Q: What sequence folds into this?
């Protein structure tokens, strides 16, 4: 959370953040006053009169802001939320954006209300496209930049945005709750027999936000997929549709082309075998597939085993 007030030629800042966070380190480097977050001290070690003329700003804080703190800001308290509210109200809008394959999201500046998450009036909202090939980790950085830019633009026209505040339509709201570790582990076990290429691709990008990889079974070994892509080439899609069964793969231009559910096609560019470094699809195929085709053809995997079938297929 950042608290600011306009001063001559700029803003006076007081940052409230967690110890050793990126915000904490940034503030120390730039000599910005910092109060370390402590839920037992209200309002964070400062008296109410200290906030006369101040505006409170919170972004990706992860904690309920105490009512006393919200009410202590003379100019109000706003939340910078990375979604097009009322869509994705909650703690995890970015994972849900990627998981659902959204092509558009946004940055919303809204009133922060006591004892409530993401339900205040909307002060400013910006629609932003989601790059089709962006990874989860890149999406974090992309969103942080967009949030910073929107915060600056909001402050420049603060009074105008406050005057145009509009309530949310909560009847059309959709939740974006925090995804638990158990749910993430379940999501990570993908199965091309029952999931489409788009679903697996979206899961890969979502888990990358958490520095996790999707896994599947190949010849009774766990295979982590590190880099994947969607295949749009009509020739390759027709090849997969007519020559492969769901879960089977073939090497095409250095990529493992995997047929998934509903005749969709996923491309695997790199992966990791147990106790091995990351390798390219080309290297994986060369080292583990070409000399063992007949053996692999005799192996049977069922969809319930989350396995990949393998079959060499001519182009």
A:
């Amino acid at each position: 959370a950042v608290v600011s007030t306009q001063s001559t030629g700029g803003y006076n800042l007081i940052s409230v953040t967690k110890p050793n966070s990126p915000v904490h380190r940034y503030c120390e480097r730039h000599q910005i006053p910092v109060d370390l977050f402590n839920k037992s001290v209200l309002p964070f070690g400062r008296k109410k009169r200290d906030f006369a003329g101040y505006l409170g700003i919170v972004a990706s804080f992860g904690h309920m802001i105490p009512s006393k703190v919200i009410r202590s800001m003379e100019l109000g308290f706003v939340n910078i939320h990375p979604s097009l509210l009322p869509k994705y109200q909650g703690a995890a809008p970015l994972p849900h954006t990627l998981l659902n394959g959204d092509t558009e999201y946004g940055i919303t500046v809204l009133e922060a209300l006591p004892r409530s998450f993401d339900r205040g009036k909307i002060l400013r909202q910006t629609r932003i496209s989601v790059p089709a090939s962006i990874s989860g980790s890149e999406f974090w950085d992309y969103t942080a930049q967009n949030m910073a830019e929107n915060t600056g633009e909001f402050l420049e026209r603060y009074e105008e945005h406050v005057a145009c505040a509009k309530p949310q339509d909560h009847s059309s709201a959709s939740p974006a709750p925090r995804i638990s570790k158990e749910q993430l582990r379940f999501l990570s076990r993908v199965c091309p027999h029952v999931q489409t290429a788009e679903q697996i691709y979206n899961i890969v990008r979502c888990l990358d936000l958490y520095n996790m990889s999707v896994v599947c079974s190949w010849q009774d070994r766990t295979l982590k997929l590190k880099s994947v892509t969607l295949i749009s080439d009509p020739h390759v899609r027709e090849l997969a549709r007519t020559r492969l069964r769901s879960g089977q793969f073939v090497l095409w231009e250095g990529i493992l082309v995997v047929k998934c559910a509903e005749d969709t096609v996923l491309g695997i560019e790199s992966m990791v075998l147990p106790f091995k470094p990351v390798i390219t699809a080309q290297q994986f195929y060369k080292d583990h597939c070409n000399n063992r085709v007949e053996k692999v053809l005799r192996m049977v995997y069922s969809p319930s085993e989350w396995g990949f079938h393998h079959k060499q297929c001519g182009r």
